[in-house]
Structures are given as C-alpha cells and as structure tokens.
Design the sequence.
C-alpha cells in the first residue's frame, strides 16, 4: 500500500512538472504572454514542412509575433466593437455551432457506418401502407397480413400486389430499383442496409406509413456518373402516333450523332428536358436511386467517357444519353475518406441523432439540476393559463426555481412566459403533451439555449475556433486602415518609392500582344485559323466567339504563360493552344513584338508591384512602432527546447 502511494505521488509530481514545462512562456509582448503550448499548436496547424527545421520554427516565431501585435492593435482600437465585426462573428458562430452541438462519438459512429454503406448499392422492393394522423389500425392490420403472407412463403412481388398501396406496383412489381447511401431517409436507409440479401425486413412504422423492404440484389457501389441528355417526351396518356413519331425522331438524331454531329447542339435544339436543354443537355452527377431504374440501368451500362447510348424509352419518353465522366465509389479507410464522409454526415438529417446525444453532455457540462414539482401543483398552474384562474396560477410562485445550471436559473416566471406563447399550439399537436411533458420540454429548451449561448464557456475547441475567426477578421480590418488604404491613397509616396527603387522594376523576357483564354480547344483552333490570316483585326474576328474566348492585350512576361514562345517570333505570330490546368482552359497568344529582359518598367507598368512593396514597408514601420509600445521578449531557453536537435 505504501509503495503504491509513493508511485502515485511520483506520477502526480511528474504530471505537474510536465504541465508546467508545457505551459512555460515562450515570448511576451508588453504585459501579454504567449505560452509554448499555444505557439506549438499554432505552428502545427499552419506548418507545411514535413519535417520542421529550426529555421521553420524561427521564421514562424517572427510571423506569430507580428500576428499577435496586429491583433493587439485591433483590440486597442476597439475594432472588435464595430457593428460589422460583431455581425460577422455572430453569423460565423451560428454557422459552425451545430458541428459542436453534436456528440462526437455518435458522429464518428454514424460516419463509419456511412463509409461502410457507401461501398455497396442495394436493390430494393417495397410494400407501402400509408395512414393518416394517429389512425394506424387499418394500415397496421394490412401490414401484419402482408408479413403473415410472406412468412408462409408468398413471393414478395405477389404480397406487394395484394397489400401495398403504392400506385406504381402494377408497373414496377414493387421494385423501386437500386439505392445508395444518403438517398433515403436515414431510418429507411438503415432498414435497407440491415436487411440480409434476398430476405424481407422487419415492419417499420414511419411518420405516415408502414414499410416492408425486400433486398433482391447487392453489388459494389457504382459511385456517381455525369451524363449529357437528350429527351423526346411522350407524356403519359399520349396517342400511339406520338410515341411512334418521337421514336422515329430519336432514331434520326442518333444517326446524326453516329456521323459526328455535336451532342450539345442537338440537345439544345431538340431536347424536351426543360432542366438540361439550356446547359446543352449536361446533367448534374448522380448516384443510383436518383432516377428511374430503366434510365439508370442504361446510364451505368456506358463503360467509357463519350460513349453514346442507342435511343431507349422510359415513362418520360425516348432518351439518348452520352457519358461525360464517372466518379467511382471511394474505397479504403484513409483519414481523408473518413473526413469527407464526416462532412456529408454532418449535412444530413441523421446528424440529429448525434445532436440528441449531446443533450446529456450539455447537462453534465453545465452542471444541470432540476427540482421536482408536485403533479397536482403543476396541473393547477398550467390549467390556469387555459382557464384564466389567477388563484390556480399562484400555486407555483414566480420565483420558484424549476432547474438550474452553473450559470442560469429557470424559474416559474420564465415557464409562465413560455406557456403563454406555446401552450395553445402544443395542445393541438398530435400526439398531445401531458403537463409533465410540457414542463420537461420547457426545461430541455431552456437548457439547450443556455448551452448554445455560452458554448465557448463549455467547449474549448469551439472557443478557439471563434477566437481565430474573430482575430483573423480584426487583422484584416486593422491592416486595411493602418496599411492597405494608406498605401493605395499615397500616390506621392508610391512614386517616390518607385524612383528610389527603380532597379527592382525591370521587365523579364516579355512580349507585347494579346493573351487569349479559350473554354475549349475546338473554339481556340477555329479562331486561330481565322486570325492568322488577318492579325490586325483580332478584336473584330473575336466577336462571333462570345463568351467562349476571352482576350487581354498589353505587355506580358513570358514567365506568366503556360507555354514557351518560339525564339524570334515575328509580329503576327499566333501560338498553338496549350491546356492550362490551373484554370481549366486553353491559352494561346498573338505576338506583336518580342522584348529582351532587363528593360525598365515605367511607373504605370510597375505600379502593382510598387504598391505591394510599399505596403510591406508601411507594415514594417507599423510593426516597429508596435514593438516599442509592446516590447517583445523571447525566452531563448524555452525556444531551444522546441527546436530540433
């Protein structure tokens, strides 16, 4: 026992020593201190070096010192009280709060589940038995009868034909096609993915219907696909002659495509799909379960980009589709896959599960305690809001504390105000609320409001994100006033700086002419073929190309280009188009004159670079003044403990 106590005491001592070392001050600026822990955390979040060097740490120390001085200057100037700053911080707080209100462990479990489900598509058949309001008896009886029939061996399609109220069953035999993760409401998705292959599910009661699923097939997930689409519509109930006419037209258009016709042009001219014809038939990428089964079967049967289907029919009419690209389902267990899926889960209604789990966390962190109220007293008090009986309302004095946290008390007076606003509507809800449930709802809402209003007090990570956002905004505001606006408005200062540093502002190898950016290579090559014959008329010749080609004339350094100009290119030379991956377009130039490196830039040509340099000068002068106001002292011993040996 004695030895265990000694070991425990040593552990406490070592832990305390470690905390003191990590909490040591790395540097101070005036009365303000920055700990070793804060600096290392900031460095790790911003470091782009795989193996940090001593130089990387020292460089970042200089940057972080400047950062802290700028933030302090903003607080000194009361920039944090500006209405615009307060609004932006409030908007950001509301935007990110939900992420911190959910329970992390539950969110991680939901994410892992979604990752596993995303690897598999499931083909589902469905028995649907709706009900209205609370009258579920008839629907439930039908559901039980359907289950009994299935247990006796009745084929699912037959049971659906006999019992399901889905009007599509006579056509689709209850087969609703392939589904993927996130396409169904979460409870129904779980029903589909938790039911074994070629078996029917348990009975599930939804908000307005009973559901029974049957899993007819399972396959590796297809992922997403993007198509170009041409539809020749045949509305339901149309005469056979219209269908024959549209089929003949579809065959003719398919023949034109086989001969090289442009799909985009035909879709724009002939497609009846109002959602895509204006985009030349291009659809948003989709996953199985988004459209009709027959349409999706055709789409996912296209194996290569630019493959075009033969005309086929669906309930909407005749389709011709072209595969643009496919995005295979992501497999594996990497951190990036998990992070991407976590974002998707956080944006899905299933996040409410994690949010509800956070309620118990809110109780714990806020020190929540509730106090019992006798049922008879509660009945009299709530009843007084319906009868207007003032005597009954006095049964629960206004100052009575119903529950409390470490920072707030929820009183009968607040409960009364809440009842005055909500009681009538809640009495009409289905199912109704008992008086005890009304009190609990008020206390639950009050707790979560308190938790949300002071979340930074209870969640250090949330507090840190708010601080980083606020400080970043403040730096932008103070830099705008102290540096950027001053530099831009100081034309004499800019010219003086240019004259004092003329040697810095010289041209590299450059050319005068026109820089073009085209949306695609076909437009670029078409224009080049024309402009080569009359370079002087480049602007006029460009007009028919509208928004597909943009031009910028002037003088350009060749280092700005995504290509190499031929040496000694003569005036009028037009380069070949080169793909620019940074912007996703094609770049080419028309040369008027080549220039050798080293020529002096005029002030007008150099002004952008001069402005940047002058801003840096003003910033350095400003930082020097701040360091006089807040002397910076670095603890070199602590710094040495950070640097790699």
Sequence:
């Amino acid at each position: 026992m004695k030895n265990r106590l000694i070991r425990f005491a040593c552990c406490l001592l070592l832990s305390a020593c470690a905390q003191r070392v990590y909490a040591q001050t790395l540097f101070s600026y005036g009365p303000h201190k920055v700990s070793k822990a804060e600096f290392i955390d900031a460095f790790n979040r911003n470091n782009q070096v795989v193996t940090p060097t001593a130089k990387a740490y020292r460089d970042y120390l200089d940057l972080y010192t400047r950062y802290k001085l700028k933030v302090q200057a903003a607080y000194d100037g009361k920039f944090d009280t500006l209405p615009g700053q307060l609004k932006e911080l409030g908007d950001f707080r509301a935007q990110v709060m939900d992420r911190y209100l959910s329970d992390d462990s539950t969110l991680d479990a939901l994410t892992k589940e979604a990752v596993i489900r995303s690897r598999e598509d499931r083909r589902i058949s469905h028995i649907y038995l709706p009900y209205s309001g609370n009258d579920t008896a008839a629907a439930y009886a039908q559901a039980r009868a359907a289950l009994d029939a299935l247990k006796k061996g009745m084929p699912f399609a037959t049971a659906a034909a006999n019992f399901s109220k889905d009007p599509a069953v006579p056509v689709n035999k209850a087969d609703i096609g392939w589904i993927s993760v996130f396409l169904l409401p979460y409870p129904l998705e779980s029903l589909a993915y938790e039911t074994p292959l070629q078996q029917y599910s348990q009975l599930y009661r939804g908000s307005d219907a009973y559901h029974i699923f049957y899993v007819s097939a399972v396959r590796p997930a297809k992922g997403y696909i993007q198509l170009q689409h041409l539809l020749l519509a045949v509305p339901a109930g149309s005469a056979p002659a219209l269908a024959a006419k549209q089929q003949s037209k579809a065959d003719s258009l398919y023949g034109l495509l086989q001969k090289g016709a442009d799909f985009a042009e035909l879709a724009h001219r002939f497609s009846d799909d109002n959602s895509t014809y204006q985009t030349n038939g291009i659809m948003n990428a989709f996953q199985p379960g988004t459209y009709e089964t027959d349409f999706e079967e055709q789409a996912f049967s296209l194996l290569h980009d630019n493959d075009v289907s033969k005309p086929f029919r669906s309930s909407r009419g005749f389709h011709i589709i072209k595969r643009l690209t496919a995005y295979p389902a992501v497999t594996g267990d990497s951190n990036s896959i998990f992070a991407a899926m976590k974002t998707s889960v956080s944006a899905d209604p299933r996040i409410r599960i994690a949010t509800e789990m956070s309620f118990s966390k809110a109780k714990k962190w806020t020190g929540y305690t509730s106090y019992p109220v006798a049922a008879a007293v509660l009945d009299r008090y709530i009843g007084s809001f319906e009868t207007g009986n003032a005597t009954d309302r006095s049964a629960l004095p206004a100052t009575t504390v119903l529950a409390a946290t470490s920072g707030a008390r929820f009183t009968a007076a607040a409960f009364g105000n809440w009842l005055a606003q909500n009681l009538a509507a809640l009495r009409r809800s289905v199912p109704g609320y008992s008086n005890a449930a009304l009190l609990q709802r008020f206390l639950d809402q009050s707790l979560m409001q308190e938790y949300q209003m002071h979340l930074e007090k209870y969640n250090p990570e949330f507090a840190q994100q708010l601080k980083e956002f606020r400080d970043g905004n403040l730096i932008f505001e103070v830099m705008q006033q102290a540096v950027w606006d001053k530099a831009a408005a100081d034309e004499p200062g800019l010219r003086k700086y240019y004259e004092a540093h003329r040697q810095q502002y010289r041209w590299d190898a450059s050319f005068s002419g026109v820089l073009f950016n085209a949306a695609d290579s076909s437009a670029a090559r078409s224009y080049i073929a024309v402009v080569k014959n009359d370079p002087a008329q480049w602007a006029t010749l460009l007009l028919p190309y509208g928004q597909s080609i943009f031009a910028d004339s002037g003088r350009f350094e060749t280092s700005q280009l995504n290509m190499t100009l031929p040496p000694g290119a003569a005036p009028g030379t037009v380069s070949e188009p080169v793909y620019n991956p940074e912007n996703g377009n094609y770049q080419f130039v028309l040369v008027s004159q080549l220039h050798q490196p080293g020529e002096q830039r005029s002030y007008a040509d150099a002004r952008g670079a001069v402005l940047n340099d002058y801003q840096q000068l003003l910033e350095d002068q400003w930082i020097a003044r701040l360091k006089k106001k807040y002397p910076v002292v670095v603890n070199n011993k602590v710094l040495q403990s950070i640097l790699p040996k």
